[in-house]
Write a sequence for this structure.
């Protein structure tokens, strides 16, 4: 690392950053219960960023490059000098970089890769299957990561953490008819009980999808989301609290002003959390070296604090800003069961559910939903799509009091949208 | 000029040959893929301007594949020292042995596979390019993109930002076994203009891009895309919501390409056949579309961002006719899946980068053109939409469901465009119905390479797709 620091100090840059990320990872790919392939990796990504002020101090140039750990000193020096030249070509409004700040956080336990991998494999091979609902294939990724950030401003922080990922396909079969369901889980370490619960729920969805009939033309029937698809709904709000969205005029949120008029549904409270049990993103600092804080970003649908990258935060004059790693949305006034009343469509599987964070457009093809006709009858349905706009849903959004965690977010376990269109 | 092959990779060859020789003492098959791909990326908007050398496909590293007792294993590293192949071999052996120990502890069985063949072949291909990204003069490119962004802002009072992006990558890959020594070098580039507009709390964005097997000189054409990006964004601001239902539709070449990609791109990736995840396996030699549907897949069937010479397993690139006049003929296949299925690989074994596993992946996926004029196609529509602008797509190969999110639909009534626009549009349906209802296809075709493709929700690779205008029936919402 010293050679990079020495080169950047002498290359003519006004400021610089080095981000060095080392990853050791093991991967296991299964088809059914049989190992398709095993893989390992040992890699390092070194990114250099330089800042160059114009002669009159009115603009700041930024250029970055990844260098290879196999590059020699001459190549690194040439890269750094080239970056200074490239930075001089682009003119950004100047801003102050992050300054060193002490922040302590209990680092996550990093278990040996072999122990972590074994735990995942045993968990997956121990899943209870039936003759008609079973694992088609799964992929296990376990990583040990070490990330160091050094800057010309005096920041020198190292964060070590485990990450893991589980890519899963399950099948359900009825005579010659077979369907599949797909999930991609992001975790810190292996959580056997949580994984078992999620996979068992998925197997049940698979069983029900076999019984599904075509989605009827339900048009304005309320929609309930009770899986990770609902994350997109809340990410829309989070994006609108981001400094980049505000600066570009893509967000009209104002501190202290409700995000919608005449809110009849639940009011939304979102907070940033430094730690969330089981999250793969429990960090003390963001990737630019800003201290991550426990903060209320929106309270009862009123923005309290905007956050984002250093550049856009500085442009907006935001103090103590940072990029959010973990986030939580508080539960609403009713229980999940209370939200499941009347006529509604509870969608548990989409091809790809999206809420466009910039436009607020809602899209998704329905792979499995449960249609409740309001008279006690429940029918699994499949096909068709849901569409709409968040702009038409904010004032009527309802959330369960119960919450559920997905990777680095905790959100209400059930979300109810009143104003969407269901095309059967 | 020819895009020169990496001196760095050439310098590794003796060490890698030695590494293979050492590992062959313990394993029955050994191959190495080493990469050294450099790039440039310039992004200019009204609020942020940056220059960098990283694109989606820049990388430098080595992945070693070994085979023993029916099992393939891989080790990826980025610090291979050609002076110390023994050290690398020891690390690989030790790590893979530790993984096998874990498998023993868990009683995991192996999906046994035959040994790959190792037919002798030596190849060096350096494709033509105008410029290299690592040598491009950035000053004029930055000015050009800044001018696009500034001009875009002046085109409408509703413009919030105008972003101009340019990326170019010089791909260099080396594939080595005991008998194969393959090297390729080529440059591809892609650029786009995104116009972000807002009015009365409603945001929309218009988008247009260029891509091709060219160097950074290609970006001179990017300014031609600005008018469409801004005007389409403005049209979307004024657009209505579509009334959900089934309509006669005409797809622009870009949307036709998205259908090709989602419908019979993913649906016939044959690693999915191995897992029993694709309905396509049961439909070989059966009808899946109308007589007007002929579809090709392969790195050789177009010159675009995914047009390589050999894939990441050292299989030479191909051109596969997947659908011939509506009949599904074959799928695409990586080398290991081919062994398992008893067929031949098609040159579609791709990795996100050297750190990632090979899967069967698409390259260029394209519908053949037809004989109709666009005017005749529009004139034939009683009531429907001309669909344009691709946002995203998703498929369900097990069920042949398809989801395409599109920017807009232009209303057609009694054979004429009415000027009314609906936006956004989600098209869903059953693939054989969508393709089976194709009744007209235009002359000519276009290929688009601005997109990326994932497997599930990860493993992103560059692909291109395209086709002619197609007339069919689709469910829109």
């Amino acid at each position: 690392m010293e050679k990079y620091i020495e080169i950047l100090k002498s290359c003519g840059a006004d400021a610089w950053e080095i981000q060095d990320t080392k990853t050791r990872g093991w991967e296991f790919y299964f088809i059914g219960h049989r190992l398709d392939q095993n893989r390992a990796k040992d890699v390092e990504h070194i990114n250099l960023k330089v800042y160059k002020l114009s002669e009159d101090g009115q603009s700041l140039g930024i250029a970055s490059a990844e260098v290879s750990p196999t590059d020699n000193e001459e190549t690194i020096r040439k890269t750094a000098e080239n970056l200074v030249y490239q930075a001089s070509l682009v003119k950004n409004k100047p801003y102050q970089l992050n300054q060193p700040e002490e922040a302590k956080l209990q680092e996550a336990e990093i278990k040996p890769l072999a122990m972590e991998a074994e735990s995942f494999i045993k968990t997956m091979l121990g899943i209870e299957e039936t003759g008609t609902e079973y694992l088609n294939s799964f992929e296990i990724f376990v990583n040990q990561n070490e990330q160091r950030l050094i800057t010309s401003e005096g920041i020198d922080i190292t964060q070590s953490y485990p990450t893991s990922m589980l890519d899963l396909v399950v099948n359900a079969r009825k005579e010659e008819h077979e369907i599949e369901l797909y999930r991609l889980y992001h975790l810190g370490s292996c959580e056997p009980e949580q994984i078992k619960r999620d996979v068992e729920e998925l197997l049940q969805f698979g069983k029900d999808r076999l019984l599904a009939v075509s989605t009827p033309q339900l048009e304005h029937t309320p929609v309930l989301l009770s899986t990770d698809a609902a994350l997109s709904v809340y990410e829309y709000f989070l994006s609108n609290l981001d400094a980049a969205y505000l600066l570009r005029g893509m967000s009209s949120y104002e501190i202290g002003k409700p995000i919608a008029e005449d809110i009849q549904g639940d009011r939304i409270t979102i907070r940033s959390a430094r730690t969330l049990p089981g999250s793969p993103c429990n960090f003390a600092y963001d990737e630019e070296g800003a201290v991550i804080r426990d903060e209320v970003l929106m309270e009862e649908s009123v923005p309290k604090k905007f956050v984002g990258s250093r550049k856009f935060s500085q442009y907006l004059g935001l103090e103590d800003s940072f990029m959010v790693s973990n986030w939580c949305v508080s539960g609403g006034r009713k229980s999940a069961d209370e939200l499941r009343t009347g006529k509604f469509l509870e969608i548990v599987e989409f091809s790809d559910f999206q809420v466009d964070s910039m436009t607020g457009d809602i899209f998704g093809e329905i792979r499995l939903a449960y249609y409740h006709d309001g008279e006690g009858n429940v029918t699994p349905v499949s096909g068709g799509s849901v569409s709409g706009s968040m702009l038409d849903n904010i004032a009527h959004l309802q959330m369960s009091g119960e919450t559920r965690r997905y990777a680095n977010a905790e959100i209400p376990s059930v979300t109810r949208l009143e104003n969407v269109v269901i095309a059967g | 000029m020819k895009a020169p092959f990496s001196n760095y990779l050439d310098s590794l060859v003796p060490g890698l040959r030695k590494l293979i020789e050492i590992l062959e003492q313990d394993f029955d098959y050994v191959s190495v893929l080493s990469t050294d791909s450099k790039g440039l990326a310039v992004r200019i908007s009204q609020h942020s301007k940056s220059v960098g050398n990283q694109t989606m496909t820049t990388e430098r590293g080595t992945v070693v594949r070994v085979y023993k007792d029916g099992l393939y294993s891989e080790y990826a590293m980025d610090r291979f020292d050609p002076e110390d192949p023994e050290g690398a071999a020891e690390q690989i052996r030790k790590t893979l042995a530790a993984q096998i120990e874990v498998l023993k502890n868990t009683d995991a069985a192996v999906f046994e596979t035959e040994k790959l063949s190792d037919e002798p072949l030596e190849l060096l291909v350096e494709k033509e390019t105008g410029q290299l990204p690592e040598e491009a003069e950035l000053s004029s490119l930055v000015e050009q993109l800044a001018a696009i962004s500034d001009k875009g802002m002046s085109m409408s009072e509703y413009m919030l930002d105008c972003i101009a992006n340019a990326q170019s990558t010089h791909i260099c890959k080396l594939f080595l076994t005991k008998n194969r020594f393959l090297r390729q070098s080529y440059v591809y580039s892609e650029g786009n203009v995104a116009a972000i507009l807002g009015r009365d709390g409603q945001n929309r964005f218009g988008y247009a891009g260029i891509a091709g097997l060219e160097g950074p000189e290609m970006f001179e054409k990017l300014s031609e895309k600005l008018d469409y990006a801004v005007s389409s964004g403005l049209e979307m601001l004024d657009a209505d919501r579509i009334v959900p239902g089934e309509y006669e539709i005409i797809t622009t070449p870009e949307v036709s390409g998205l259908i090709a990609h989602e419908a019979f791109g993913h649906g016939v990736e044959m690693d999915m056949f191995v897992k029993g995840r694709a309905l396509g396996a049961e439909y070989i030699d059966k009808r899946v579309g109308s007589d007007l549907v002929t579809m090709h897949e392969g790195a050789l069937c177009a010159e675009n961002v995914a047009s390589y010479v050999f894939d990441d397993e050292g299989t030479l690139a191909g051109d596969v006719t997947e659908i011939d006049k509506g009949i599904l003929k074959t799928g695409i296949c990586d080398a290991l899946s081919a062994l398992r299925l008893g067929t031949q690989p098609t040159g579609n074994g791709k990795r996100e980068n050297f750190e990632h596993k090979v899967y069967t992946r698409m390259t260029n996926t394209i519908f053949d053109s037809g004989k109709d004029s666009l005017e005749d196609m529009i004139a034939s529509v009683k009531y429907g939409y001309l669909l344009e602008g691709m946002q995203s797509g998703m498929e369900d190969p097990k069920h042949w469901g398809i989801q395409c999110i599109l920017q807009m639909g232009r209303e057609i009534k009694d054979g004429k465009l009415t000027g009314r626009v609906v936006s956004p549009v989600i098209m869903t349906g059953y693939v054989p119905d969508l393709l089976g209802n194709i009744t007209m296809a235009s002359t000519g075709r276009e290929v688009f390479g601005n997109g990326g493709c994932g497997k599930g929700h990860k493993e992103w690779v560059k692909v291109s797709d395209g086709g002619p205008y197609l007339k069919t029936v689709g469910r829109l919402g």
In short: The helical segments of chain A are 2-9, 73-89, 113-125, 192-211, 231-240, 243-247, 310-315, 336-339. The mean pLDDT of chain A is 95. Chain A has eight helices and 22 strands. Chain A touches chain B through 84 residues (CB under 8 Å).
